[in-house]
Specification:
CATH topology of the domain at 50-127: GMP Synthetase, Chain A, domain 3
Shape: globular
CATH architecture of the domain at 50-127: 2-Layer Sandwich
Number of helices: 9
Structural class: alpha+beta
Strand content: 15-25%
Distance between the termini: 52 Å
CATH superfamily of the domain at 50-127: DnaA, N-terminal domain
Number of strands: 7
Length: 181
């Protein structure tokens, strides 16, 4: 590595004129990124957020049928899970099981803990369309080509943590295979 002084022409892209920057050969950037990802997730607190938000896709498996049929998760904000409840009668009924649900959800979570559960009613315009089974717009499944799979597999092969590599591969596969109609 050598240090080079920034000229006036380069100062907009790099830094102030007169600053010294390090210039040299690029190291294996893919390996650097692979080493950075797990620690970046921990440092930014994203690992905990990913864990907290894992209740969304597993909602119907984590709660009993009454909860699942009349309440859907909306968001998690400041470790509080917000649920949209079908109507005021169900809101009152579900309040009775709130602490049991909170305990069950926290047992499921590995890294984070929910502090509370808040329940809201749908807005008047959404009231007629409340459907806990609504999966959003239809999605079709289109398997990525073997060439794309092999190409991405080659990109993630540099990740040392097998579990992390496999999770990233699964995420990529689903992101590329599921298409809205």
């Amino acid at each position: 590595m050598q240090s080079v002084e920034v000229t006036k022409r380069d100062s907009k892209a790099i830094g102030k004129t007169g600053d010294k920057v390090m210039v040299g050969k690029k190291k294996n950037s893919a390996a650097n990124v692979a080493g950075l990802l797990p620690s970046l997730l921990r440092q930014k607190g994203w690992e905990k957020q990913l864990d907290l938000h894992s209740v969304f896709p597993k909602w119907k498996d984590l709660v009993d049928e009454d909860f699942a049929g009349h309440a859907v998760p909306l968001k998690i904000e400041r470790d509080v899970l917000w649920l949209e409840v079908e109507n005021s009668s169900w809101l009152q009924q579900l309040q009775y099981g709130k602490y049991e649900l909170l305990a069950d959800l926290n047992d499921f979570l590995r890294l984070g803990q929910l502090k509370d559960i808040k329940m809201v009613l749908p807005s008047p315009k959404d009231k007629l369309s409340f459907d806990p089974d609504d999966k959003g717009p239809p999605v079709c499944f289109e398997r990525p080509s073997p060439e794309k799979i092999a190409s991405f597999q080659k990109q993630v092969d540099c990740i040392g943590d097998e579990e992390c590599r496999e999770a990233l591969m699964q995420f990529w596969y689903l992101a590329n295979a599921c298409k809205k109609k």
